[in-house]
Specification:
Layout lengths: L2 E5 L2 E4 L4 E8 L6 E8 L6 E6 L6 E3 L7 E6 L4 E6 L8 E9 L10 E2 L3 E6 L1
Parallel strand pairs: 2-11
Antiparallel strand pairs: 1-3, 3-8, 4-5, 4-9, 5-6, 7-8, 9-10, 9-11
């Protein structure tokens, strides 16, 4: 049974940093492209970042480039999202997701986590 478990969310002030983690189990982690998405209250889920199986290639939502960094540790079966200079508009539930193989799309993921809430106060 595949499980993706996010952690690291919480309440922070604007300008702070957070690092989210997503621990995977039940799959051969290195064979999956991994991604982060987020869903703000009352809004649709949106793409945040994607990382290739090797970790060498990353792709970001244009609006988040420079503030967010995705990375992965295949030995630990974990993907990370480092978020800097957080803004109130970054408040959302953050989800990690997995897609088998070398995926260069956005939303067609095979597995999803249940999310972790990030709240940024002004």
């Amino acid at each position: 049974q595949v499980q993706l478990v996010e952690s690291g969310g919480g309440l922070v002030q604007a300008g702070a940093s957070l690092r989210l983690s997503c621990a995977a189990s039940g799959l051969t982690f290195s064979t999956y492209t991994m991604a982060w998405f987020r869903q703000a209250p009352g809004k649709e889920r949106e793409f945040v970042a994607r990382i290739s199986r090797s970790g060498l290639t990353t792709y970001y939502a244009e609006s988040l480039k420079g503030r967010f960094t995705i990375s992965r540790d295949n030995a630990k079966k974990t993907v990370y999202l480092q978020m800097n200079s957080l803004k109130p508009e970054d408040t959302a539930v953050y989800y990690c997701a997995a897609r088998f193989g070398d995926y260069t799309g956005v939303y067609e993921m095979d597995y999803w986590g249940k999310g972790t809430l990030v709240t940024v106060s002004s």
